């Protein structure tokens, strides 16, 4: 089984995000960047499947400018076999990303696409579902457990009511939750080896995808500061406030 796994470069989840003074977007200047945590889980799962003998090759892919190759180096240090960057100097919307990935799937012919359920920069949670539609493949979203059996996957999904398990035939698209696994700690020798490994590059235009935006961003603003708390004198007063003060709710 061949696996294609995605890796998006985002602002590190430990960094406080700041908005540009003109409200035109998030200020990424000098911000620490990292692999999207949900994609990191997908990369870890792909490598584990290869280590278990369930996969023959793992290919990591990202879409973006030259700086995006940083996350591909991380994926190579995890243990993926090859890395590929779709070249795009401008941010891409979910529809364009899904079309580009669909074109890559036609080239690479993987049996399974693993990807984070969403990226923490836009929280769109759309690309996996769109990709499955473009390919006409089965899909299993929000995976928190995954087992391979022949030509079928058993995927346990996080849902509103808890968890339930579905079967999906290969080829398929699977999007991952954070609790699918605990990504490994990358050792320094693997990081050094990853820096020397080649990265394939494909211009977005070569995939026949139009990356022009279809959405208009009207503005970005930070949430209002949280109001200070109030101290009450007794439990009875607290209960009364919770029952009758709409502002507390």
Summarize the structure in words:
The protein contains 6 helices and 11 strands. 27% of the residues lie in helices and 27% in strands. It has one domain (2-218): 3-Layer(aba) Sandwich (Rossmann fold), CATH 3.40.50. The strands form 2 sheets. A 9-stranded mixed sheet has the order 9-8-7-10-6-1-4-5-11, sandwiched between helices. It has helices spanning 37-51, 69-78, 94-108, 127-135, 188-196, 235-244, and strands at residues 2-6, 9-11, 33-35, 57-64, 82-87, 112-116, 138-149, 152-159, 162-169, 172-176, 200-203.
Short description:
This protein is of the alpha/beta class. Helix content is 27%, strand content 27%.
N- to C-terminal distance:
52 Å
Residue stretches low in confidence (pLDDT < 50, at least 5 long) are none
Share of residues in strands: 25-35%
Looking at CATH, the homologous superfamily is HUPs
Shape field = globular
Quantity of strands, as a count? 11
- Sheet of most strands: 9 strands, mixed
Oligomer: single chain
CATH architecture grouping: 3-Layer(aba) Sandwich
CATH class: Alpha Beta
